[in-house]
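Progress report, Aim 2. The chain analyzed during this reporting quarter is listed below.
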Amino acid sequence: MTLPELQRAIYQLSVEEQLILLETLVQALRVRSQTKLERHTLVNQLRGCLKKPNQPALTDTDIELMREERLVEKYLK
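Predicted C-alpha cells for the chain:
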C-alpha cells in the first residue's frame, strides 16, 4: 500500500480505529528512536574502550583476534 492510499484509507476508519492507529504509530516510533539511541550510546562506549591514549587505534586484525579470543574463552573453556 502506498502512502497516498494509506492516507485515504485513514479517513474511512472510525474515530476509535484512528486513535488505535495513532497509538500504534507512536509506539513504533518510540521503539525505533530508542533502538537508535541505544546503538549510538553503545558505539560511543566501545570507542572509549578500544582507543587508549598515546597508542594507535586498533586495526581490524586486532579486533578480530580479540573477538576470536573471547569466543574461545566463552565456548571452549
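Residues 3-76 form one domain. The first helix runs from residue 3 to 10. These observations will guide the mutagenesis work planned for the next reporting period.
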